[in-house]
């Protein structure tokens, strides 16, 4: 703590022996107060000043302010002078108000700050403006309206003057449940109580699948009384969940899967269907997935080979160039009057690799030709209506990702001087291009006209197909309008 300027003067020095004359020597001749951080000059009398007061004189190259003698430097007090500064006794500044205390300048500072009963102080409580003698202040602080009293409910400090009214607003004060369930809760917890605990609040039956709503206090009774009902709805829920798990496990796309989607469209499907005979099919153009060629084949009225298969709508996916591996896929067909497209998922093993899991006992698909939807497509046969009469079969395929190797293309020298106009031709240099397997097939879309759709029929039905083709113009036109749309991303 730096020393305080107390405004001391000789009249405040204790009048005993030499004390008063020593006291006068401790007062700075420039500022008249007790010398602060005192320094003595090298004038003949070694006069003493505050260090700041005498340094201003020195800076102005003035003489000693007391004796006008020459000053060249100032220095710290001699031991003798320092002892004198410490020993001079002063009266309390409040001596006229009956305080009889005496002591050194340093002791006087502490006395005024902490002890003197006559020293005036301010009430420390926030918001209180009271000022009074220290003797009265401690009594005042004990009853001050602004002193803080801790609230037992919210633990906040509440000003004493507002404490009696505090329970009407205290967030921790217990209040009765507004629904009169008999419970008292802290004011801030009322909403939580009503939403989660209140026996009079309405809640849903906690049993999975039961949609009953009741007062919370009646839940236990409801659960006890409807055991059989709950067992039934629970088993329904489990069935639903099983279906969802099955669907998810067949449609989930892993990060490292290759994905591909393709849409086969059959315009005028509904009218064409009337004239179609068993064994006739709609074939999509070939498309490429994972570097292999595939196409979709739809037999709307069955393959016509035997009675067992007759009239059974089937959708097949053919891998025409020896694809090997497990293909997962989802087929969706949008029909008028249905809120969601009809969706069927499948998982098929192609090629010579050992089949996995429960498909292991099944025959491998001959020639890569595999039925992916059979009975599920019964919906396509009768009474099905499609937007603008066009059947659209969206197929999404996924398979474990291939290690994509870059396709290496050769190079040759291109001759001739560089022409002035146009883009100069590169000479030499090799090109290595990374190509997505699906992208390769897309590249041919614009270049080639859509391949004519074939009517694919086993030999036994070929004659019938030809007859139908000849007798009905709509049959052949519908068959030729089958096209392959651009694959869309997932
Ligand atoms: Zn001074
Ligand atoms: Zn002097
Ligand atoms: Zn005092
Ligand atoms: Zn106060
Ligand atoms: Zn409170
Ligand atoms: Zn309640
Ligand atoms: Zn229930």
From TrEMBL:
<dbReference type="Pfam" id="PF02176">
    <property type="entry name" value="zf-TRAF"/>
</dbReference>
<feature type="domain" description="RING-type">
    <location>
        <begin position="28"/>
        <end position="68"/>
    </location>
</feature>
<feature type="domain" description="TRAF-type">
    <location>
        <begin position="166"/>
        <end position="216"/>
    </location>
</feature>
<feature type="domain" description="TRAF-type">
    <location>
        <begin position="110"/>
        <end position="155"/>
    </location>
</feature>
<keyword id="KW-0863">Zinc-finger</keyword>
<protein>
    <recommendedName>
        <fullName>RING-type domain-containing protein</fullName>
    </recommendedName>
</protein>
<dbReference type="InterPro" id="IPR013083">
    <property type="entry name" value="Znf_RING/FYVE/PHD"/>
</dbReference>
<feature type="region of interest" description="Disordered">
    <location>
        <begin position="470"/>
        <end position="490"/>
    </location>
</feature>
<dbReference type="GO" id="GO:0008270">
    <property type="term" value="F:zinc ion binding"/>
</dbReference>
<feature type="zinc finger region" description="TRAF-type">
    <location>
        <begin position="166"/>
        <end position="216"/>
    </location>
</feature>
<keyword id="KW-0479">Metal-binding</keyword>
<dbReference type="InterPro" id="IPR001293">
    <property type="entry name" value="Znf_TRAF"/>
</dbReference>
<dbReference type="Pfam" id="PF13923">
    <property type="entry name" value="zf-C3HC4_2"/>
</dbReference>
<feature type="zinc finger region" description="TRAF-type">
    <location>
        <begin position="110"/>
        <end position="155"/>
    </location>
</feature>
<dbReference type="InterPro" id="IPR001841">
    <property type="entry name" value="Znf_RING"/>
</dbReference>
<keyword id="KW-0862">Zinc</keyword>
